Amino acid sequence: MAILEEPVKGVPKIKNYVDGEWVESKGEVMDVVNPLTCETIAQVGISTREEIDDAIQAAKEAYVDWRRTPPVARCRYLLRLGQLLEENFEELSRVQTQEHGKTIDESRGETRRGIENVEVACGIPTLMQGASAEDIASGIDEYLMRVPLGVFGIISPFNFPFMIPLWSAPYAVATGNTVVIKPTEQCPISQSKLAELVDEAGFPPGVWNVVNGEKTVVNGMLEHPDIKGITFVGSTPTGRDVIFPKCGATGKRSIVQCGASNMMVVMPDCNVRGTVPALMTSFFGNAGQRCLAGQNLIVVGEDDGFYNEFMEAVTATAKEIIIGNGLDESVQMGPVKDVQKKERILGYIESGLKDGATLRLDGRKPNVVGGYPDTCFLGPTIMENVRPEMRVVTEEIFGPTMGVIRAKDLDEAIQICNDNPYHNADAIFTSSGKDARKFQYEVNCGSIGINIGIVAPMAFFPFSGMSGSFYGILHTQGKEAVRFFTESKVCIHRWI
Amino acid sequence: MSEKKRVSCPIKHVNFYIVTYDDGSHKVKCVNIKLCGDSCPYLKDPGFKTEYKRAPGYKAK
To answer: In a 10 Å sphere around its CB, with 0-12 CB exposed, 13-18 middle and 19+ buried, how is residue A139 labelled?
Structure first.
């Protein structure tokens, strides 16, 4: 197939979007690198403390009028934004492929999932309604309103650079808050494109701000008294040890969504023809760089015949995955984001081998179609004889690897799932409703898949997660996001 | 109208409908049809199938 045209040309300088204006950062400049070619495709400023403070101040000032804007009027801006996102769907998707490396199909899926959150947030006039009760005592009525809080910070990771801020921002602004988004400095272009559309949609200055940068911007948000809450998606060490405790210490509400080491449990009665492709996208889609990716395959049963036949099917299919340029529509897996991430994944493979795992499929020297340098590429890697206590199971790899564990029965498989330090999204593949129900009931994790390899909740359901993978109470997306971005205010009244 | 078929578009990742009439003509009923215009492959061929596969198919022996 032909290679699609790249929308990002030259080396644009990515600016901050503050108070409705495009502002060049005074901080150091960092290169944004396309992992396919390792060429610089943009430059981004690493913003200073003053710059994040200015953005928060602008958002605080904008909040005064924005919260008084009727919800139905606020939604009109989002409806216009949704329309602009549709009009720019393909360009936004190709930008993600260029800055991140993922395939165009994965980028299109990401764009769609982002737009769906804008669409769901357009229901705010209904979604943020409170409750009321007449005559709670003689002649006294009581009602509850959901009111906005002020300025929210949104900190997003590299793996879904376009979509993840949209798990939060549409709900935040629809409910009357204002936002400051810190995109990942590794892939900031799609958020810049999104801000261009926000600008075109006519949002009032200061309602939607984007400040590029690194730790200084994050700390600026965490320490600023005018930031009422933060949503964060990123690694568990940063989320658990920095974001969550600092939000607690400064009285901010927080949604902290972190890493994972998800388990895909295969029962001997599964539909092999349906299960194998589902596992391919689960383990190797987005080059394994997603918190919903399968990392461990648990094959249940002591029947070596089923195990060998199933693993043969998995291995043969994984070998067929076409690796290369994500803008080539025949390609099924792109590179990982950068060399450091590749080295980290290679380190985990070495660690697994050292701990006793064996390689069934070695993806360390992949065949990249199109003659691109293999600098950031890895192929699907399958390790067998993996045990639950190995680092390749207890730590998040975030790459295209599959560690295969054998369990004698479903009880043992469930035990392995529950003993893992992460509890994000586990799945079972079976044709038994009884086993599926047992798995759903007994496995402690935020999202459960039944014959589904990537358990990605839709925009109108919370993006759930549990301990190790999540810190907080409410989650992003849907009604929980609405609840997070509003405070309950109760009014009791009596007229004498 | 002889047939109404729901289709999943691999380009925009949305579901839409193709209505086929008794005389063999067809209409694409999609919210994005104005945006996509002539680039919509279903306008020419209601049976369009993308060559792209998210994952290689598994063929049982």
So the answer is: exposed
* Residue A83 at interface with chain B, using a CB cutoff of 8 Å: no
**Separation of alpha carbons A284 and A264, rounded Å:** 13
* Dist CA A154 CA A167 (whole Å): 10
Query: pLDDT digit string (tens) for A389-423?
Result: 999 999 999 999 999 999 999 999 999 999 999 99
The first and second tokens of residue A408, run together, are 């004698």
Q: Residue A288 is part of a domain; what is its CATH number? A: 3.40.309.10
**Number of other CB atoms surrounding residue A202 within 10 Å:** 11
Domain extent, residue A104, equals: 13-258+469-494
- Residue of A332, A369, A454, A458 best to disrupt the B interface, most CBs of B under 10 A: A332
* Interatomic CA distance for residues A156 and A404, integer angstroms: 31
What is the DSSP code string of A85-143? HHHTHHHHHHHHHHHH---HHHHHHHHHHHHHHHHHHTTHHHHT--EEEEEEETTEEEE
Is B1 a residue whose pLDDT tops 70?
Answer: no
Q: Residue A206 sits in a domain of what CATH number?
A: 3.40.605.10
Of A90, A284, A332, the CB nearest to B53: A332
A187 as an active site residue: the answer is no
pLDDT band at B51 (very low <50, low <70, confident <90, very high): confident
Number of domains in chain A: 2
Task: Kindly report, residue by residue over A234-266, the tens digit of the pLDDT.
Answer: 999 999 999 999 999 999 999 999 999 999 999
Q: Residue A434 CB: number of other CB atoms within 10 A? A: 9
Instruction: Assign B35 to helix, strand or coil.
Output: helix
